[in-house]
Amino acid sequence: MIRTLTIEDAALRRGGRLLFEGVSLTLQAGQACALTGPNGSGKTSLLRAVAGLVRLEGGAIGFGDVDPHDARGGGLHFVTHADGLKPARTAAEELAFWSRWCGGSEATAQAAAEALELVPLLRLEVRRLSAGQRRRLTMARLLAAPRGLWLLDEPLSPLDARWRETFGSLMRRHLAEGGLILAAVHDPLPIPTLSLELPA
To answer: In this structure, are residues 23 and 196 in contact, taking their beta carbons and an 8 Å threshold?
Structure first.
């Protein structure tokens, strides 16, 4: 399990433009960090770099004593603002797919559905779900296949006050169990966090 995330003097360039440089962060088990900055500052790109989807221009990303390949292959979740759900599939099919893909089981998927009150929605096609319901379905993979590091891109944006509070409780539980969270946000998270601001 990932217990440490380090970002050392990171620089990242996209489309010929330098998004940021000199970015450093150390995140330990039980800690969360809110990644802030204006639109276009590179918040999502930094999450993608941690997940191994884009390459840094300079600097390094490490996961303590966990090999980066292993960390990215099975030690973290990356949930983007785009839900990645197939509109024609049922919620049950999507939850089952993501649970299997991430290493969960039928039992853990069912437990996640119950925790996020998705059971009454499982027979519905994804296209029939509201934005908040789709977000809850997307977040269910965090519970269906537990992994140490959560990389979240605007995780609370489509949720109402009740579900923001509920997801805050889930994040607190994840941290209490030794997890880590790095989240790109515009609004404050409902948990104590470190802060890393990317400049414009």
So the answer is: yes
Q: Are residues 62 and 152 in the same domain?
A: yes
Residue whose token pair is 């400049």: 199
**Residue 61's CB: how many other CB atoms inside 10 A?**
19
Asked if 177 and 141 sit in the same domain, the reply is no
Can you give 32-44 as a three-state secondary structure string? EEEEECCCCCCHH
Going by C-beta distance under 8 Å and a sequence separation of 6 or more, which residues neighbour residue 64?
2, 3, 4, 5, 6
pTM over 0.70: yes
Q: Angle at CA 95, nearest 5°, toward 190 and 49?
A: 60
> What letter would DSSP give residue 125?
B
- Domain containing 98: what range? 88-146
What is the C-alpha separation between 81 and 71, in angstroms, rounded?
Answer: 22
Strand order in the sheet with 32-36: 76-79, 149-153, 180-184, 32-36, 194-197
- Does residue 40 share a domain with residue 56? yes
Residues 136 and 163 sit within 8 Å (Cβ to Cβ) = yes
The answer on 161 and 117 residing in a single domain is: no
So what's the pLDDT on residue 153? 95
Q: How confident is the model at residue 83 (pLDDT cuts 50, 70, 90)?
A: confident
